[in-house]
Amino acid sequence: MLGDEAFRLVKEARNITTDHIPAYNEEQVRLVAQESRYLWTRIEELIASLNTLQSQGGDGHEFESSQTQDPMGHQPMSPQKQFGGAADLGGYSQHSFDSDPTTAASRSNAMIENTNAQSTLFLVTLNRNKRCLLAYHHKRMEFIRSLLWALHLAPSLVPAQMSVKLSPEEQNYAREYAKLNSAYRDAVERQLCLNDSLDWTANGELPPRDLFIEVRVVKDCGEIVTENGVVNLQAGSQHYLHRSDIEHLITIGYLEHISPK
């Protein structure tokens, strides 16, 4: 059914949370784009048929020969199948339509209304597909931007299990976004803070008192390199580590700070 592929894509976008993002669904995006191209082709064909019908003064002969396919790509429907057979037309035959100007005009109007209805349906579906594609990618871009700010605009700190879920274009977007904001930050610092630097990722809390903190691993992070060597952060384990080494993992929810009693 028209629009189903776009609906599935939006459902995936709803599963994006602050600490989880599904893998980029390239196949589903391709299906939505393919359907959208098909709809645009159908709209152009319908408009061309409508212009032909109107330019001929409503006799409908050329319009019949170029009658469009249905949305599922089946063969074109004949006027008898689309508008009913002779019995459905009150007993009039094809010859009756052609010889009776009043009936021919009514039939022409019906064709025009049918074409307008189809083109409107296709156009509404096309616009909906476009909005769904934009919403899907916008939601993923929001996640990437939030993640980068949590990681102090350092794309290299993005966990591997999360990085593999991003498309190559999204990974490039993350690098360029971080580079652009870092350049802007540096320019502002040069103008406003000659002897100091700004932490644009600070959340406004009081500065930490302890250099080392105790943390609990909420999600498996694998091995990380700290100032004191390699540490394996397995889910459920607890560690006493330098705050600067693991603060970004706390921010994105992979570690939990165990506050002293």
UniProtKB/TrEMBL annotation:
Q: Which UniProt keywords apply?
A: DNA replication, Nucleus
InterPro entries assigned to the protein according to its UniProt record, in alphabetical order? GINS_A (IPR021151), GINS_bundle-like_dom_sf (IPR036224), GINS_Psf1 (IPR005339), PSF1_C (IPR056783)
Stretch list, region Disordered? 54-106
Compositional bias, Polar residues, is annotated for 93-106
Biological process (GO) annotations held by this record are: DNA strand elongation involved in mitotic DNA replication
| Keyword Nucleus in record | yes
| Keyword Protein biosynthesis among record annotations | no
Limits of the DNA replication complex GINS protein PSF1 C-terminal domain: 210-258
A single GO CC term for this protein reads: GINS complex
Domain (GINS subunit) ranges: 123-185
What compartments host this protein? Nucleus
Describe its assembly.
Component of the GINS complex.
Q: What does this protein do?
A: Required for correct functioning of the GINS complex, a complex that plays an essential role in the initiation of DNA replication, and progression of DNA replication forks. GINS complex seems to bind preferentially to single-stranded DNA.
Protein family per UniProt: Belongs to the GINS1/PSF1 family.
Please report the name of this protein according to its UniProt entry.
DNA replication complex GINS protein PSF1
Source organism lineage? Answer: Eukaryota, Fungi, Fungi incertae sedis, Zoopagomycota, Kickxellomycotina
In the UniProt record, what gene is named as encoding this protein?
A: PSF1
